[in-house]
Amino acid sequence: MQQSRQHIRSHIRQQRQQLTPDFQQQAAHTLAQQCLAMPAFLNSQHIALYLSNDGELDTTPLIHALWQQDKHLYLPVLHPFSAGHLLFLHYTQDSVMVNNRFGIAEPKLDQRDILPAAQLDLICTPLVAFDRHCQRLGMGGGYYDRTLRPWFETGQGAKPVGLAHDCQRIEHVPVEPWDIPLPTIITPTTIW
Protein backbone atom coordinates (compact mmCIF):
# COMPACT_ATOMS: atom_id res chain seq x y z
CA MET A 1 0.00 0.00 0.00
CA GLN A 2 2.85 2.42 0.82
CA GLN A 3 4.28 1.95 -2.66
CA SER A 4 0.84 2.66 -4.13
CA ARG A 5 0.47 5.82 -2.02
CA GLN A 6 3.94 7.03 -3.07
CA HIS A 7 3.11 6.35 -6.73
CA ILE A 8 -0.11 8.37 -6.41
CA ARG A 9 1.75 11.23 -4.73
CA SER A 10 4.40 11.29 -7.44
CA HIS A 11 1.87 11.09 -10.29
CA ILE A 12 -0.52 13.75 -8.97
CA ARG A 13 2.26 16.15 -7.95
CA GLN A 14 3.66 15.86 -11.49
CA GLN A 15 0.22 16.59 -12.99
CA ARG A 16 -0.24 19.55 -10.67
CA GLN A 17 3.16 21.01 -11.54
CA GLN A 18 2.37 20.82 -15.26
CA LEU A 19 -0.60 23.18 -14.97
CA THR A 20 0.11 26.44 -16.79
CA PRO A 21 0.42 29.71 -14.85
CA ASP A 22 -2.74 31.03 -16.58
CA PHE A 23 -4.67 27.90 -15.63
CA GLN A 24 -3.38 28.14 -12.05
CA GLN A 25 -4.43 31.79 -11.80
CA GLN A 26 -7.92 31.13 -13.15
CA ALA A 27 -8.37 28.10 -10.88
CA ALA A 28 -7.29 30.13 -7.83
CA HIS A 29 -9.82 32.89 -8.53
CA THR A 30 -12.61 30.43 -9.25
CA LEU A 31 -11.88 28.52 -6.04
CA ALA A 32 -11.91 31.77 -4.04
CA GLN A 33 -15.36 32.60 -5.45
CA GLN A 34 -16.60 29.10 -4.53
CA CYS A 35 -15.32 29.45 -0.97
CA LEU A 36 -16.65 32.96 -0.43
CA ALA A 37 -20.18 31.78 -1.27
CA MET A 38 -20.12 28.93 1.24
CA PRO A 39 -21.71 29.29 4.71
CA ALA A 40 -18.64 27.61 6.25
CA PHE A 41 -16.51 30.60 5.17
CA LEU A 42 -19.20 33.25 5.61
CA ASN A 43 -19.88 32.17 9.20
CA SER A 44 -16.23 31.71 10.24
CA GLN A 45 -14.12 34.42 11.80
CA HIS A 46 -10.87 32.50 12.52
CA ILE A 47 -9.71 30.59 9.44
CA ALA A 48 -6.50 28.62 8.96
CA LEU A 49 -5.15 28.53 5.43
CA TYR A 50 -1.77 27.63 3.96
CA LEU A 51 0.55 29.21 1.44
CA SER A 52 0.60 27.18 -1.73
CA ASN A 53 3.67 25.16 -2.59
CA ASP A 54 4.66 22.52 -5.14
CA GLY A 55 1.85 23.24 -7.62
CA GLU A 56 -0.90 23.36 -4.99
CA LEU A 57 -3.91 25.47 -5.84
CA ASP A 58 -2.89 29.07 -5.11
CA THR A 59 -4.61 30.35 -1.98
CA THR A 60 -3.52 33.97 -2.47
CA PRO A 61 -6.80 35.27 -4.00
CA LEU A 62 -8.78 33.60 -1.20
CA ILE A 63 -6.48 35.04 1.47
CA HIS A 64 -6.83 38.58 0.08
CA ALA A 65 -10.61 38.26 -0.23
CA LEU A 66 -10.93 37.01 3.36
CA TRP A 67 -8.74 39.86 4.63
CA GLN A 68 -11.12 42.28 2.87
CA GLN A 69 -13.95 40.69 4.85
CA ASP A 70 -12.02 41.32 8.09
CA LYS A 71 -11.54 37.62 8.79
CA HIS A 72 -8.67 36.58 11.06
CA LEU A 73 -6.34 34.27 9.13
CA TYR A 74 -3.80 31.81 10.46
CA LEU A 75 -1.01 29.82 8.83
CA PRO A 76 0.51 26.52 9.94
CA VAL A 77 3.94 26.59 11.54
CA LEU A 78 5.99 23.49 12.30
CA HIS A 79 5.96 23.00 16.05
CA PRO A 80 9.50 23.64 17.34
CA PHE A 81 9.35 21.13 20.23
CA SER A 82 6.73 18.56 19.26
CA ALA A 83 7.87 16.83 16.06
CA GLY A 84 5.14 16.17 13.52
CA HIS A 85 2.74 18.75 14.96
CA LEU A 86 1.53 22.13 13.76
CA LEU A 87 0.90 25.45 15.44
CA PHE A 88 -1.35 28.08 13.84
CA LEU A 89 -0.11 31.68 13.89
CA HIS A 90 -2.07 34.81 13.10
CA TYR A 91 -1.24 35.95 9.57
CA THR A 92 -1.51 39.54 8.36
CA GLN A 93 -0.04 41.49 5.47
CA ASP A 94 2.66 42.64 7.90
CA SER A 95 3.63 39.20 9.22
CA VAL A 96 7.36 38.52 9.22
CA MET A 97 7.89 35.33 7.23
CA VAL A 98 10.65 32.72 7.42
CA ASN A 99 11.18 29.47 5.53
CA ASN A 100 10.74 26.24 7.49
CA ARG A 101 12.91 23.15 7.03
CA PHE A 102 10.85 22.17 3.96
CA GLY A 103 11.46 25.57 2.36
CA ILE A 104 7.85 26.67 2.90
CA ALA A 105 7.19 30.22 4.11
CA GLU A 106 5.55 30.50 7.50
CA PRO A 107 5.10 33.33 10.02
CA LYS A 108 8.05 33.82 12.35
CA LEU A 109 7.22 32.06 15.61
CA ASP A 110 5.85 34.40 18.25
CA GLN A 111 3.75 32.76 20.94
CA ARG A 112 1.53 35.86 21.16
CA ASP A 113 0.29 35.05 17.62
CA ILE A 114 -0.63 31.39 18.32
CA LEU A 115 -4.27 30.33 18.28
CA PRO A 116 -4.89 26.72 19.38
CA ALA A 117 -6.37 24.61 16.57
CA ALA A 118 -9.45 23.89 18.69
CA GLN A 119 -10.27 27.63 18.71
CA LEU A 120 -10.17 27.99 14.93
CA ASP A 121 -13.49 27.92 13.10
CA LEU A 122 -12.17 26.40 9.89
CA ILE A 123 -8.94 24.69 8.83
CA CYS A 124 -8.26 24.67 5.10
CA THR A 125 -6.00 21.72 4.39
CA PRO A 126 -3.72 21.07 1.46
CA LEU A 127 -3.72 17.62 -0.09
CA VAL A 128 -2.07 15.69 -2.88
CA ALA A 129 -5.00 13.50 -3.90
CA PHE A 130 -8.59 12.81 -2.86
CA ASP A 131 -11.47 10.57 -3.85
CA ARG A 132 -15.26 10.96 -3.99
CA HIS A 133 -15.52 9.84 -0.35
CA CYS A 134 -13.32 12.82 0.66
CA GLN A 135 -10.46 10.59 1.71
CA ARG A 136 -7.35 12.77 1.62
CA LEU A 137 -3.80 11.78 0.73
CA GLY A 138 -1.26 14.32 1.95
CA MET A 139 2.49 14.56 1.52
CA GLY A 140 3.10 11.77 4.01
CA GLY A 141 4.22 13.63 7.14
CA GLY A 142 0.92 13.23 8.99
CA TYR A 143 0.85 16.84 10.20
CA TYR A 144 -2.78 17.48 9.29
CA ASP A 145 -3.91 13.99 10.35
CA ARG A 146 -2.53 14.70 13.84
CA THR A 147 -4.06 18.19 13.87
CA LEU A 148 -7.50 16.94 12.80
CA ARG A 149 -7.67 13.84 15.02
CA PRO A 150 -9.44 15.63 17.95
CA TRP A 151 -12.09 17.01 15.57
CA PHE A 152 -12.53 13.58 13.96
CA GLU A 153 -12.92 11.83 17.31
CA THR A 154 -15.23 14.36 18.97
CA GLY A 155 -16.74 16.54 16.24
CA GLN A 156 -15.64 19.55 18.30
CA GLY A 157 -13.37 22.36 17.20
CA ALA A 158 -12.34 23.62 13.80
CA LYS A 159 -14.03 22.05 10.81
CA PRO A 160 -11.58 20.94 8.11
CA VAL A 161 -12.03 21.75 4.44
CA GLY A 162 -9.72 20.44 1.73
CA LEU A 163 -8.69 22.64 -1.20
CA ALA A 164 -7.51 21.08 -4.47
CA HIS A 165 -7.35 21.19 -8.22
CA ASP A 166 -9.86 18.99 -10.04
CA CYS A 167 -6.98 16.94 -11.47
CA GLN A 168 -6.13 15.76 -7.95
CA ARG A 169 -9.25 13.60 -7.72
CA ILE A 170 -8.61 9.89 -8.16
CA GLU A 171 -10.89 6.86 -8.10
CA HIS A 172 -9.75 5.51 -4.72
CA VAL A 173 -7.30 6.73 -2.08
CA PRO A 174 -5.66 3.78 -0.29
CA VAL A 175 -6.43 4.45 3.37
CA GLU A 176 -4.25 3.82 6.41
CA PRO A 177 -5.69 3.67 9.97
CA TRP A 178 -4.30 7.12 10.86
CA ASP A 179 -5.82 8.91 7.84
CA ILE A 180 -8.52 11.47 8.63
CA PRO A 181 -11.22 11.89 5.96
CA LEU A 182 -12.49 15.41 5.32
CA PRO A 183 -16.15 16.42 5.46
CA THR A 184 -15.72 18.72 2.45
CA ILE A 185 -13.25 19.18 -0.38
CA ILE A 186 -13.52 22.18 -2.67
CA THR A 187 -12.17 22.34 -6.21
CA PRO A 188 -12.69 25.14 -8.74
CA THR A 189 -15.62 23.23 -10.28
CA THR A 190 -17.10 21.09 -7.50
CA ILE A 191 -17.83 20.92 -3.79
CA TRP A 192 -17.36 17.33 -2.71
Question: Could you explain the architecture of this structure?
Answer:
- By secondary structure, this protein is an alpha/beta fold.
- It has a single domain (about 1-185), classed as NagB/RpiA/CoA transferase-like (Rossmann fold, 3-Layer(aba) Sandwich).
- It has five helices and ten strands, in the order αααβαβββββββαββ.
- The chain has a six-stranded mixed β-sheet with strand order 3-2-1-6-9-10, with helices on both faces. The chain has a two-stranded antiparallel sheet with strand order 4-5.
- α2 packs parallel to α4.
- The chain is globular and about 40 Å long.
- The model has no long low-confidence stretch (mean pLDDT about 90).
- It is an enzyme of class 6 (ligase).
- Its EC number is 6.3.3.2.
